[in-house]
Amino acid sequence: MSEQEGTTFVQWRERAQNEVADDRPQMRMLMIVAAAVVVAGIVIGSIVLMLS
Questions:
Q1: Residues 20, 27 contacting (CB under 8 angstroms)
Q2: Is the pTM here over 0.90, yes or no?
Q3: 52 residues of the chain, pLDDT tens digit each
Q4: Membrane among the record's keywords (predicted)?
Q5: Vertex 25, ends 10 and 30: CA angle to 5°?
Q6: C-alpha span between 10 and 17 (Å, rounded)
Q7: What is the DSSP string of 17-33?
Q8: DSSP 44
């Protein structure tokens, strides 16, 4: 496939990022918060397991 056919990966990625940033800023914040909660849970769980 040549670069003239369809869109390149870089163009597709930029378009996807723009759509997420423009259309759903709440969804992006929700995903960041969810990731933080998961990381905090893993850290707290590992501390509890090490102390027990």
A1: yes
A2: no
A3: 455 566 688 888 888 777 665 666 677 788 899 999 999 999 999 999 999 8
A4: yes
A5: 105
A6: 11
A7: HHHHHHH-HHHHHHHHH
A8: H
In this predicted structure, what is the pLDDT of residue 5?
60
For 3, 10, 14, 35, 46, the CA distances from 7, given in Å and listed in that order, are 7, 8, 11, 30, 44
**What are the backbone dihedrals phi and psi of residue 8, each rounded to the nearest 5 degrees, phi first?**
-80, 165
Task: Identify the pLDDT of residue 13.
Answer: 81
Give Cα separations from 16 to 10, 11, 13, 41, 49 (angstroms).
Answer: 10, 9, 5, 30, 40
Q: Which helix (H) or strand (E) holds 2?
A: none
Residue 38 CB-half CA count within 13 A: 6
